[in-house]
Amino acid sequence: MKTLLYKAVFTYDDIHRLPEGNYEIINGERRDMTPTGFEHGSFEGKFYELLTRHLKDKGYVAVGEIGILINKTPLKIRAADVVYISKRKSPEMPKGILETPPDLIIEIISESNTAWEITDKVKDYLSVGVERIILVDPLTQTVSLYQKGKREATLFDFEEEVTLIEGITLRIKEILT
């Protein structure tokens, strides 16, 4: 007896009724993500606190694999660790998958992430107009800053000052230790 497996392909029409879970959608196909560890979640929380404290009147901050629409056809949705979107771009607090590119995305790199996965994700974010992407790598204690319109990333270590977004400059070691 043969068993046929149904492979769901999601389209943009499905965007408001996607199932709950920890995944991204690449070319219409769901790609499950490995749950993050406690340290990763703690880092997300620290960035949330910092951004909320400094930007609460200027925009909205969210953490925890926030869906960012990259492409409608074929459907591509990426999941970001920390997101800030200004009230200029979104006058009201967003609901559901973000279809407007955020001002800032912070990704905490896990040991399970490959270099090509991270590079592909950064390219996707830049392609939709995300202004700043910050990759924080706790293992190497480095920070990579990607900016809209710039062809090269800037690399920092945790001891150096980095500007997360206008008005927030700090040493990453100050919030992650």
What Rg is obtained from the alpha carbons, in whole angstroms? 17 Å
The helix/strand class is: alpha+beta
Individual helix count: 3
Strand proportion? 35-45%
Pick out the low-confidence regions: 1-5
CATH architecture: Alpha-Beta Complex
What is CATH's topology name? tt1808, chain A
How far from one another are the termini?
Answer: 57 Å
Topology, please?
Layout: E1 23-26, E2 29-32, H1 38-55, E3 59-71, E4 76-86, E5 104-108, H2 115-127, E6 132-137, E7 142-147, E8 154-157, E9 161-165, E10 168-171, H3 172-176
Description:
This protein has 177 residues and is α+β, with helices and mostly antiparallel strands. It has a single domain (12-176), classed as tt1808, chain A (Alpha-Beta Complex), CATH 3.90.1570. The chain is built from three helices and ten strands. Strands 3-4-5-6-7-8 form a six-stranded mixed β-sheet.
Short synopsis of the structure:
The protein is of the alpha+beta class. It is built from three helices and ten strands, in the order E-E-H-E-E-E-H-E-E-E-E-E-H. The longest helix has 18 residues, at 38-55.
